[in-house]
Amino acid sequence: NAGVTQTPKFRVLKTGQSMTLLCAQDMNHEYMYWYRQDPGMGLRLIHYSVGEGTTAKGEVPDGYNVSRLKKQNFLLGLESAAPSQTSVYFCASRDYRGTGELFFGEGSRLTVL
Amino acid sequence: GQQLNQSPQSMFIQEGEDVSMNCTSSSIFNTWLWYKQDPGEGPVLLIALYKAGELTSNGRLTAQFGITRKDSFLNISASIPSDVGIYFCAGQPVGGSEKLVFGKGTKLTVNP
Question: What is the structure's pLDDT at B49?
Fold first, then answer.
């Protein structure tokens, strides 16, 4: 059972570089989310998607873009990385029905120098 | 936006002690969820609560959905070293079924 898989797990970037984080889920979930986790700040929602081809902003969307071209994949892009984007990024998914339970990936640790 | 106030921020306890943490909000929630994050991992669901007043147990864990729908608590009895981690509460707001609101977490350290 793969569940939610994030790649890469670790990445170091220089300021101004671009990169994409990939999230893949094999549970046929409609909803997918990208969060960032910083010490003392909890989990903050960056962007989310309620279905293939749709995306919406969360609470901290600036500096990030997302795409959901396929139902099982949700990509998070940084066009011009900044040190403030150093964080651990988590992808999550859930079924649109009922319970609200989110299934999380293992996280991607990004450092921007 | 809606916020959840989770307390305490951190706890340092001895193995065998009981633990209690809670989340409060000024808004009403339909669902309360408690997650645990082990070091280096993503959060995993511990308990889900769907009804005001509901009290649910999962082994040594007990959680309650407050009667006002604005709060929830999680208790851990007889703590063990593997209880170490960050515990998050999350709520599904009324009318906002797409997104969960997360507390900032309670970091638990258990000394053997």
Answer: 94
